[in-house]
């Protein structure tokens, strides 16, 4: 039996892209997955498909910018399955633009989803993990957590923050595994929220060489399936031919 089977795995941002691919792979490997995102219709459809294939799947509408909502999501999983083994803080948004465009509402949205959302995910499971002296937090950062490009200042700032928060969590909680997953370019809906036309064109060009989301899902599965005394701290996964 794989070290993934029967684990209770919560995935934020499971309605598309990397989160959806991760749900598919982990459910196929026998994990009990709990899907969260705002687009419940997508979650419902995905859950039905995975259940038809024999998976154990629950879903719940989730907005990670709300601590209350995120706690309710975790409590729902705990009530349904009796424990939580893995929390994957994957939800993210990327409305890029040059700082001089002053798209302050979009800066705040990135901070709210990409940083506060991760913190809310940690807060929702940490007491349970501390009590059990076990658990695994997987936070999705980015190659933008290492490097900054023009138009990406705030987005990269959020992803640097995810790496810093994850490292702090790892240092403070020795009984809990903490993994940072930092993808390069991956096919998904992530760039759809870019409202600045020039930035959209530039990013579309940059995103021509991309991995499919299942490449990141395989990285996540690798981290989860290690024995409990092995903590895969960080995975950086780029397309071979990409930047
Ligand atoms: P997608 O846009 O396909 O997926 C993003 C997911 O986040 C969606 O399921 C969306 O669901 C969810 N989401 C957004 N806002 C919220 C919210 N407030 N509450 C709950 N869920 C939310 O993009 P990806 O799959 O590519 O992105 C997943 C992660 O990977 C992100 O953190 C992203 O930054 C990171 N990443 C992606 C890269 C790429 O090239 N694709 C590269 C590096 C990192 P819904 O709208 O239904 O709420």
From TrEMBL:
<dbReference type="GO" id="GO:0016616">
    <property type="term" value="F:oxidoreductase activity, acting on the CH-OH group of donors, NAD or NADP as acceptor"/>
</dbReference>
<dbReference type="InterPro" id="IPR036291">
    <property type="entry name" value="NAD(P)-bd_dom_sf"/>
</dbReference>
<keyword id="KW-0560">Oxidoreductase</keyword>
<protein>
    <submittedName>
        <fullName>SDR family oxidoreductase</fullName>
    </submittedName>
</protein>
<dbReference type="InterPro" id="IPR020904">
    <property type="entry name" value="Sc_DH/Rdtase_CS"/>
</dbReference>
<dbReference type="Pfam" id="PF00106">
    <property type="entry name" value="adh_short"/>
</dbReference>
<dbReference type="InterPro" id="IPR057326">
    <property type="entry name" value="KR_dom"/>
</dbReference>
<comment type="similarity">
    <text>Belongs to the short-chain dehydrogenases/reductases (SDR) family.</text>
</comment>
<feature type="domain" description="Ketoreductase">
    <location>
        <begin position="7"/>
        <end position="189"/>
    </location>
</feature>
<dbReference type="InterPro" id="IPR002347">
    <property type="entry name" value="SDR_fam"/>
</dbReference>
């Amino acid at each position: 039996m794989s070290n993934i089977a029967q684990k209770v795995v919560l995935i934020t941002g499971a309605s598309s892209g990397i989160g959806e691919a991760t749900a598919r792979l982990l459910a196929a490997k026998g994990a009990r997955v709990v899907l969260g995102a705002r687009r419940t219709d997508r979650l419902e459809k995905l859950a039905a498909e995975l259940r038809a294939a024999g998976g154990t799947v629950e879903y719940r509408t989730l907005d990670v910018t709300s601590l209350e909502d995120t706690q309710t999501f975790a409590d729902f999983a705990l009530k349904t399955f009796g424990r939580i083994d893995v929390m994957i803080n994957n939800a993210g948004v990327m409305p890029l633009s040059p700082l001089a465009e002053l798209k302050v509402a979009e800066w705040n949205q990135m901070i709210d989803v990409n940083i506060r959302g991760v913190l809310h995910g940690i807060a929702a499971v940490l007491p349970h993990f501390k009590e059990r002296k076990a658990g695994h937090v997987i936070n999705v950062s980015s190659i933008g957590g290492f490097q900054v490009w023009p138009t990406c200042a705030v987005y990269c700032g959020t992803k640097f923050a995810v790496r810093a928060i994850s490292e702090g969590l790892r240092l403070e909680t020795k009984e809990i595994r903490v993994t940072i997953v930092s993808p390069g370019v991956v096919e998904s809906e992530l760039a759809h929220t870019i409202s600045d036309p020039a930035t959209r064109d530039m990013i579309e060009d940059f995103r021509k060489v991309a991995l499919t989301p299942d490449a990141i899902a395989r990285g996540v599965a690798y981290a989860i399936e290690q024995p409990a005394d092995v903590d895969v701290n960080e995975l950086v996964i780029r397309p071979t031919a990409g930047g």
